[in-house]
Amino acid sequence: MHLDVVTLRDFYYDSDLGRLVQRSLQGRLRSLWPNVRGMNVVGFGFAVPFLRPFLAEAARTLCLMPAQQGVCPWPPDGPNLAALVEETLWPLPRGFADRILVAHGLETCERPNALVEEIRRVLAPGGRVVCVVPNRSGLWARRDATPFGYGRPYSAHQIARTLAGHDLSVERETGALYMPPSHRRPWLQSGALIERAGQRLDLQRLAGVRIVEASLQVCITPQSGLRETARARLNVLGGLAPAPRPAASLVTAELR
After folding, report:
1. Mind listing the pLDDT tens digit for each residue in 219-244?
2. Calpha distance 47→26 (Å, rounded)
3. pLDDT by residue (tens digit) across 184-204?
4. Does residue 245 form part of some domain?
């Protein structure tokens, strides 16, 4: 189930909880990608709240939004870098993206394997993709008060298996959103403290979302068989012994 782009935009930019989530995930992503200078960074789903730190640094920054969700102009203070696309058919050439960020995209996709295959096609050799998905064992996937309560939540094994089926190997995994998914003031005021404690203790099973970074594995297919035939008889003994000859008695017997 895809949420409307207006609902997603209102959560991240017009609610205190959404702005807290935005700051938390921006910090986690920045720790994974400390330097994207000169790279092509592509977001898919509703990734615009987390792409802002990379906007001035990357060579190109684009955000692709699925047609089922809708699109909004982004950034609001510059030329538009967002586009409406078919979720499994991106208008980008093969190997274009050095970094891909998927947020509010994989868990709501009706054909997740086709989406991951499209990510693999667009990702450059050695490139990295980060998927932000609801954690199956976390509180955020069990409440629909936030966008993370919709769609298909993932466990660590499930997301790793989904990516591995398309030559994407998990490099790093972390969690975020350890605070309760509540709009109440006491929880909002203590949210940053709870978040720091959860990250320090690395309580990924209790995290609201899983942040998984994977890289594209480029394999060289081994060539089988010989391309050229032997043109001369191989001398196995290498001159250490005379070449064997049939016994004279056997030759005489065959002539008879």
Report:
1. 655 555 545 444 545 454 455 555 55
2. 10
3. 999 999 988 999 898 888 788
4. no
Residue corresponding to tokens 């490139």: 127
Q: What is the CATH number of the domain that holds 61?
A: 3.40.50.150
Number of domains in the chain: 1
β-strand 168-176 against 209-216: which pairing, if any?
antiparallel
132 lies in some domain = yes
Q: Give dist(CA 227, CA 250) in Å, integer.
A: 38
Structural domain boundaries enclosing 38: 5-216
